[in-house]
Amino acid sequence: MHEDTLTIHWMTDLHLKDTVTGLPEAAGAIYAERHYYAALDKLQQSVEIIGAIKPDLVVCTGDVIDGRQPLRAFAEQWERIRSPKTFVLGNHDLDAGYSAVVAELGYSEGPEIAGSRFTRSFPLHKGDVRVRILILDTYVGEDGQHRYDTCEGTIGPAAFEWLEKEIMGCPEPVILLFSHNGMEGPAAYFDQRHAERFRELARRLTQTGKRLYNLAGHHHVHPQALVKEIVPGYTYVNGVAMIVGPLSYLNVLHVQKDGTLDIEYEEVRYRSTPHSPK
């Protein structure tokens, strides 16, 4: 990796389903675009790629399980990653319960920000590349509690206050905001009152010359990320969903010192290796 380029490996929407892992002929192994049987193979290969390349950061934007089950299979692979890493949950992860996700992924001792232990802010610098990483839990409601049984993302009052402070006050010229639901994705997947309020914040920020990217999953795009400039300086990126098909991709982000974001992909696939049903 080049000293003037910051590299982030980003996985999203794995949808592990333990009962059909490695069993493509099993009932429920495939549903629409979701190839559940292949999910663990794709995750394992992603971890191997990360170990070989050693990116500056690894991000997972959630939906690592599908249905009520433990996060053990994901957690075991996540623990193998030695590069700096960060995680935010998706709506399907809440099927296990917020407290269970916090405990299984080792976030119990972390700070709680705007109702979530996953929401956080930190700098990521490499040479002349200076980036602010923001991780936003979009399933905390206006009452400060996690919202279950919904696909709609939100930014509650406490979260918006935190976002505004971090976005407008951070010293870095480039901001990467990772969330499960994207503010500029399909309208049904985000509270449009909150999306418009965030859009106004983004306009204010970009008038200062800074760049903002919202990188999200939830909406299953494949085989390439959806990239959409909302206003000059504010770009929405919907990453490739790893659950789609027997072959999918790990998103590889390269951030240049001028704020340019380039996206490449590392292929991950079903390896036809039998797994014992859980």
What features would you describe in this structure?
The chain has about 280 residues and is of the alpha/beta class. It has a single domain, classed as Metallo-dependent phosphatases (Purple Acid Phosphatase, chain A, domain 2, 4-Layer Sandwich), CATH 3.60.21. The chain contains five helices and 13 strands. Strands 6-7-8-9-11-10 form a six-stranded mixed sheet. Strands 5-4-1-12-13 form a five-stranded mixed sheet. It has a two-stranded antiparallel sheet with strand order 2-3. Strand 8, helix 5 (about 190-205) and strand 9 (about 210-220) form a beta-alpha-beta unit. Helix 1 runs parallel beside helix 2 (about 70-80). The chain starts with a strand and ends in a 9-residue tail after the last strand. The model has no long low-confidence stretch (mean pLDDT about 95).
Name some characteristics of this structure.
Purple Acid Phosphatase, chain A, domain 2; 278 residues; globular; 29% strand; alpha/beta; 5 helices; five-stranded mixed beta sheet; six-stranded mixed beta sheet
Q: What does this entry show, briefly?
A:
With 278 residues, the chain is α/β, with parallel strands linked by helices. The chain has helices at 39-53, 72-79, 98-104, 157-169, 192-206; strands at 5-11, 30-31, 34-35, 57-60, 85-87, 120-126, 129-136, 174-179, 211-221, 226-231, 234-240, 247-256, 261-269. The longest helix has 15 residues, at 39-53.
